[in-house]
Amino acid sequence: MSILQDIPILSLILLAPLAGLLVVLLLPKQRSGWMKTAAIVATIVPFLLSLWLYADFDKQQGGAAYDEQLSWAEIPLNKELQNGVSEFVFKFQYALGVDGLSMPLVLLTALVTAMAALAAVHVKKRWKSFFVWFLLLETGMLGVFLARDVFLFFVFFEITLVAMYFLIGIWGYFHRERAANQFLLYNGIGSAIMLLAFVLLVNTAGFRIDQAGEQASFVYSGSYADILRNLADPNAWVNLSPDQLGGVNPFQMTDAMQWTLFIMLLVAFGIKLPVFPFHTWMLKVHTEAPPSVVMIHSGVLLKMGAYGLLRFGVLLFPEQVREWAAVLAALGVVNILYGALLAFRQQEFKLVLAYSSISHMGIVLLGLAAFNEIGLQGALFQLVSHGLISALLFLIVGSLFERTGTTELAKLGGLARSMPFMSGVLLTAGLASLGLPGLSGFVAEFLAFLGLFESMRWLTALGVVGIVLTAAYVLRAVLKITFGAQREKYGALRDARLVEAVPMIVLLAFILLLGCYPSVLTDTMQTSIGGLFEQLLATRAGG
Amino acid sequence: MDMYTQAAWLVPLFPLAAFLLLTALGRGFRKAGALIGSAGALAAFVLSLLIVVERLGEGAVDYNNAIDWIAIGDYTLRIGFEVTNLTAMMLVVVTLVSFLVNLYSAGYMKNDERITVFYGYVSLFTFSMLGLVLSDNLLSLYIFWELVGVCSFLLVGFWYTKPKARAAAKKAFIVTRIGDAGLLLGILLLFWYMPDHALDFTTIQSVFDGQSGAITTGITTLIALLIFLGAIGKSGQFPLHVWLPDAMEGPTPISALIHAATMVAAGVFLIARTYDIFQDSAAAMETVAYVGGFTAIFAATVALAQNDIKRILAYSTVSQLGYMMMALGLGSLTGGVFHLFTHAFFKALLFLGAGSVIHAVHTQNIHEMGGLASKMRVTAWTFAVGALALSGIPPFSGFWSKDMILTAAIETNPLLFVVGLAAAFCTALYMARLFFLVFMGKPGSASADAHEAPAVMTAPLVVLAVLAAAAGFVETPWNGWFGSWLSGEAEAAHGSGVAIVASIAVGLLGLYVGWLIYGKGGVSRKAAAERAPWLVKLLENGYYADELYAAVIVKPIRTIGSVLMVVDEYIIGGLVRLAGIATAYAGRTAARLQNGQVQTYGLAAAIGFVVLVAAIVGRRFWP
After folding, report:
1. Residue A323 contacts B where some CB pair is shorter than 8 Å
2. Whole-prediction pTM value?
3. Cellular component per GO (chain B) (predicted)?
4. What is the ipTM of this complex?
């Protein structure tokens, strides 16, 4: 037994940024230094807590011990319908939990946000509202990964949208308002589809009967555990035809409906990931949002799409994923190659990185499409790895822009001379991004390719072509900035200050750790993925 | 009794420690660079030497040890090291050349302000190369394979302010990555076909024994060719050789260490390590032999027309690596590895000698040099030894290894024997040209102030010259010690009188013709340029391989990228804008409903209610 099981550790992690938010609200407006400190502390606390949880998690072999559940609101439904029914309600609940899928992402979120808070030193105006939205954003993200109730998940998902909208719209660059509007609109469409899918899901699979002696209570809820159990159990009402139930079965989920739900979820989360051709909204975010926010956007928010796809797509509808594996893999390959080819042609470094994100998210799709343990591990590994690497890259972009006033490749060059440290970090981050062994990107790519190769060789081979293209566009951009003759006007640039160097070193250290000793992550993921596959296989055998 | 062998994992850790120390110290400690770097390499060399000495006796057993790297369900990926006689030999070659290059660089890089960084990179490279050599399975080999690639990239681009260095570094990385992608696919294929998904060399050896039939010939060939693709990239074989001549933009000691003696030989080493797979597929062996043979003659002819001293040696390296590949493809594992062994010494020697020359005259154009022999005696003498070894003149080391390859060719493939002889002739010719133009004759425009390099640079030359002269005696036609030590089986004498005579004859002929043209001046140097100017142009430009790549690969990719950019902006981006417009339109329409009339609101509420009811009721009749 560890102490973590006796305290609501998940809630503490989730609410720590909110506490910081309150402190920031109470501070006087002029005290920007205090506010920054408060915000940084408020992000470091959940980071340390999730680090502790992560260490404890491994020893527990799974996260069930930390589950938290509170009933939030109950809406009574008509209970005269049946005899012997004590209760017929719709339950909104506050349910949190971690498993091998979400644990690494919680830690990633806390880490990247803490580093982004340090990078927020470059923010120039309205510190108070910035940090308020910033900390709200963190709670939203943590909530997305911790929620074990589809409605709770949805609420947190929406919180991130609103917070991002203001962070882009107020603190962004020149076209910030257009970028913010586009972001909200496009993601709004995704959210609408997601909500519709969730409602349908709850109406069928979100039904539970608690038998207590003679009396039974009928409960509709968004409980993820209930939905998963119902869908996986071939004898649950969801999976029975009306005939098997005496003519009427309002809970039945037909094949057609399963497919509809699956495709709705695919679109909803595909927009966030982003899957080609739903990607263009995120280009503007990458170029217009302030760098510390892009760190979070590229480092964590995109991962929410992949996480949603995994949690609700793959786990709830494994049959559909299996049948559509080739489609997913093809989409992944398109993402990889399309993103890489376009990254190769960009003149703006931020756009190179944006397209690179598209390319790298293709690897996630490949891992999911592989539909085996190795592939899933690869997909998850890629989420964490890409989160760290892209956060690091945008951290550097922020510091670079502070000094040079531009991120256009044509205007940069030779920075290695005046800024050897930052150039070195940029080069290393670039190498991590192109999948150099010893750094985290390689492990993810390798596992995803390895997993997919079992079933789809030709698509894997096409995907592997991507590693050559990636090398080409990463080196083109990074060498353009750092190598070459030094430009006159950049002669006196200062290398990274301590407050900039610390997050760079921390992120780099994690990238290196995962690259050299990947077991630290894969073992944790294995606690869930291993069991998951046994379960999926058993279901298939049974049904 | 295997004390040193079991401690082999320590060998790479010395240079790694040097790298970490140098990185931590930063560039402030200029003096410490050479000291720490050399000490790391020296310690590694001493231990490697002890390992080899320990294994010289009869019956040295292979030793390996591995740890789990990633365990996923039933699959385990492991990282480990293995010491065989082949890896032990490679350890010594790598650490020795690395140490000498470390020493040499103390003089050559003395005035460079980033000398500490340089030594850091060199130490990192040495670590990676040793890791590659020691790897006990294909996955960890691949990891180090990529790491040596990145070190090569860093060192080629060491003088990063030069645009040419930047371009060369990028090219080196990307071109070799094409090969790496092939190797990666080969590993994936192997993983899913091997029993228990084993990737270690011992298991590979037992599965591909030619009889078990666990894996079909087709798949075997495919795996072998994919692995070979990796070797083509790394070892500069045609058609992926284009990066190696450009890599000469790096500091010359690097060219000696990475682009002559060690990393570029990794492709040969890889094939030697997975030789059992190749032996199971006749088609793969033939491909290796022909690609190697073609590369040997192709690059040798290009070397004839180059004017940059380092580019001549670079093409020569490509050509010699082709020789090694040809030997492997012809079934002579010993021949390929033996040539790797001797080549490492004499080519490192030639590069370091060239560096000494460049250091003295500050140009790389051989036509601006001349008459340097009198001013740089040690360099000239040692360079001569290297040139004779490379040209295959007995008793220098290159003769013995080249002869072994030609003997293998004459027995199995007369066509490749002729190709090998032709390449040997070109080799002797371009080395004579190089030597006479640089060291003999009248002093050139740049030779005026030339003087011998300091002892810290000439001492490595002398050591390498001794090895280049004598290393061949470990394996002679009448004494197959090296081959039997390597393979663990007694090898029959393999001399072929024809091969010996022919190879000596073409070597001497090449030197003689070179002397006639560039030494004595009996034949005009411009004769070829006057009679066949197109041929000279063709050779000078390396058969326009770069231009071909630009037209066939780089340009189309750029064009596709440009087209996709338009597609992304107008078609896919149009989707987003459409969504925006649609939402705005919907918003305006909805706003029109808010006209303050209760009837309208009532109507809207009623419609909504009907839809809701219909949805709930209709839900039961969902198909």
Report:
1. no
2. 0.91
3. plasma membrane
4. 0.91
